[in-house]
Prior knowledge:
single chain
Amino acid sequence: MEPRKALADAERRPYWLDSPDAPEPTPHLLGHTEADLAVIGGGYTGLWTALLAKERDPALDVVLLEGRRVGWAASGRNGGFCSASLTHGIVNGVDRWPEEMPVLERLGRQNLDEIAATIDRYRIDCSFERTGELQVAVEPWQLRQLTRHATAARELGADVEILDRDQVRAEVDSPTYLGGVWNRSGCALVDPARLAWGLRAACLSLGVRVYEHTPVRRLRDTGPALELDTPAGRVRARRVALGTGVFPPLLRRLRHYLVPVYDYALMTEPLPPGRLAEIGWDHRQGVGDAGNQFHYYRLTRDNRILFGGYDAVYHNGGLIRAAYEQRDATFERLAAHFFATFPQLAGVRFTHRWGGVIDTCARFSAFFGTAYGSRLAYAVGYTGLGVGATRFGANVILDLLTGQDTERTRLRLVREKPLPFPPEPVRSAVVQLTRWSLARADAHQGRRNLWLRLLDRLGLGFDS
Length: 464
């Protein structure tokens, strides 16, 4: 089907958030209040921090402040891949923290198990499916890369299976596939918005005070407490957890380490059983291809296909605007790629198209820190792989705020920062040159040019 025709009726809003089951917002803050812990941000980082704080100490008075609606940003717009990886994939981790990878992989698997237990304990209806993830090669050079990934994963105890062309097409049938690697236990799929809403409900059940439509405009140190100014009130808190992602941070130093990158996705109409049978997908794995500009896709509970990725767009100057959430050129490109991947699904239409902004950092995985004499702690920079890792990040935040010496806080992953990005306008030039170089690498059998090789040596780069 011609991409524009398939997109003609697609709503311009995130599929996950377009639900009659979305909870009513909590009231915004009016007047002044005090708390033991104030959490800024109602995405996954903030929600997990508030929930885990109450589970650690039920007597703790916790306030969560969200500028708009819980889960409205990246936490409600992503693909719903809940990965065990804390390092944006094993190879990225091995390249950066080789001596820590056995611990990081163990902690990651434990973190995913604990997410599953939390979903069960609070009866969160978020379509949690522990399907694993299928990485597929669509170019010969990607087969070598996937073999490296599988070898590293097996050495660290992961349950992975290398599939040849026929085996991978027996799992999900696309004429573009040349081989693949199935990580059977390292990833689950969720409905991301319902996960956020379920975590909100769990927080409320434990006594967390949640204020939506309550943006924090200013943070001040008044000595014994930190004060948070909002449009209609103020919070005084002994400790503050910052989970605002890529949005303009209250802690200015974070601006040096983050760039906003826009990612886009499409959602199809539900596939009837006969049409779904044309591609198989009986094990319902999440799927991603192995290009630098990669696609990710998965099935929903009602057998729609989410198809996203490829374009990762940085707007010069690091601008964040609602208008950037819609990009017709990218939607048409994704639709064309969808039908190239699954030509047997010709005639399927898309019901939703949307974009969202990702907090990207130079090492591609989250980093952590404190300020105001360790009375404020943060976790940020997940680079699109935060559905699972944010729970680990929340635990790090709480360890740092309480001054605990834990296995987590001793990690070099936690103690070190990524390299900062250069200031503008150099930053924009660096990011755009890197995006162009990655596209060239995909077009030239993965060969990395001088610029990418330099970034590799510096540990500074850009991940789509």
